[in-house]
Amino acid sequence: VGRPHGDDQVAWTVADRIAGGDSSQRVHKLASPFELFAHFQPGRPTIVIDACRSGKPPGTVIRVADDQLAELWDIAPSTHGGSVLEAIRLAEALGRKPEPLVILAVEIESTSPAAALSAAGHEGADRLERQLRAEVARLEPASPRHVAHNTNTGT
């Protein structure tokens, strides 16, 4: 889920890299955090990549286990009319939450309309891609793998 506004497109950048390099990955670019629900399946390992604003330096990658989500996304309301946390809570209530679920969020700097990724956004994308590939390798025995991404800034 994202927008073409500055660093808010960081997850899209990483998703394009992953989708272009490994056809065994299921990668989805979404317009709303609630679209995650359509891709969630119990028992299917899922990694959601996202942009965030938590006060850490831009480009910092944060790994969030699903039991830690409230700490990250309760910081501020979403700009997308809903948050990743709300979508996950809905999936859980309806028995559709994937297990395991890992969220990788990269701290962003700017979401200026129609702007390109900042230098910090590019560095964050590189870090996020490395961390994502490490998470996929860690989950590999639990194949098939599923990667969803969201650029909900939490603002």
Q: Would you kindly provide a written description of the structure presented here, covering whatever features stand out?
A:
34% of the residues lie in helices and 17% in strands. The chain has 155 residues and is of the alpha/beta class. Strands 1-5-2-4-3 form a 5-stranded mixed beta sheet. α1 (10-21) crosses α5 (119-139). It is globular and about 40 Å long. It starts with 9 loop residues before the first helix and ends in a 6-residue tail after the last strand. The relative contact order is 0.32. The mean pLDDT is 80.
Summarize the structure.
This protein is an alpha/beta fold.
- pLDDT averaged residue by residue: 80
Give the biggest sheet: 5 strands, mixed
Structural class: alpha/beta
Total helix count? 5
Strand content: 15-25%
Give the strand order, joined by hyphens, for the main sheet.
1-5-2-4-3
Q: What is the general shape?
A: globular
First and last CA, distance: 14 Å
Question: Total number of β-strand segments?
Answer: 5
Low-confidence stretches: none
Order of helices and strands: HEHEEHHEHE
The helical percent reads: 25-40%
Kindly provide the radius of gyration, computed on alpha-carbon positions and rounded to a whole number of angstroms: 14 Å
